[in-house]
Amino acid sequence: MVGLPNRSAVCEGALVTTAVVRCGDVVRRPTQSGAPTATTNRRVRAVVHRGAAGLAATDLPAEVHIVDDVPHDWLFPRCVAVVHHGGAGTTAAGLRAGRPSGIVAHIGDQPFWGRRVHELGVGAPPLRRHQASAEALARMVETLVATPVMAARAAELGAVIRAEDGVGRAVEHLERHVGEG
Half-sphere exposure of 100 toward its Cβ, with a 13 Å CA cutoff? Predict the structure, then answer.
């Protein structure tokens, strides 16, 4: 796994309590992230993606692991919840894994996905990048890890998504509509 400094320290054979991914991409400067302090008093472990902001792994609690790129389909199922930027692909990966998501939206369609995940009952109320203080992220993490009904809904939706043959259905639709012309 690229970027995981010590996989056993990150996973310890059990679920990682929270994964905070792409956090470095949703803040202007690494010091604005709040991700490490958002997990400190919550008895959770966090996997934080270094991102474009280049978050450094200095002076962090043992529960926080800074990583480079890690495949979402590998990491997310090992987590209890996921906090991310809300891009369509990352949102889909979190939903597919069946994990509650917290979205810190930055640009484009990210605010839409944050609202949609929350409306479906599978995620915390979304934040915008400028709202991502340590306190706001801590509240988000607390909501994600302490709401059993949200976890159950996310697991149900994940099972439905994993059971779909999305590519096969897309091909059927294309053949039916494009093949007619």
Answer: 27
How far apart are alpha carbons 65 and 4 in whole angstroms?
8
- 173 by Cβ neighbours in 10 Å (0-12 / 13-18 / 19+) ranks as exposed
Q: How far is CA 140 from the centre of its chain?
A: 12
Rounded CA-CA distance 50/24 in Å is: 5
Q: Confidence class of residue 179 from pLDDT cuts 50, 70 and 90? A: confident
> Which string of DSSP letters, residue by residue, matches 118-168?
HHTTSBPPPEEGGG--HHHHHHHHHHHHS-HHHHHHHHHHHHHHHH--HHH
- Cα–Cα distance, 161 to 58 (Å, whole number): 38
Please tell me the CATH code under which domain 7-178 is placed.
3.40.50.2000
Tell me the domain boundaries of the chain: 7-178
The mean per-residue pLDDT over the stretch 80-91 comes to 92
Q: Sign (positive/negative) of CA torsion 24, 27, 29, 32?
A: negative
Q: What are phi and psi of 13, to 5 degrees?
A: 70, 5
pLDDT band at 175 (very low <50, low <70, confident <90, very high): very high
Quote the CA–CA distance of 18 and 68 in Å, as a whole number. Answer: 16
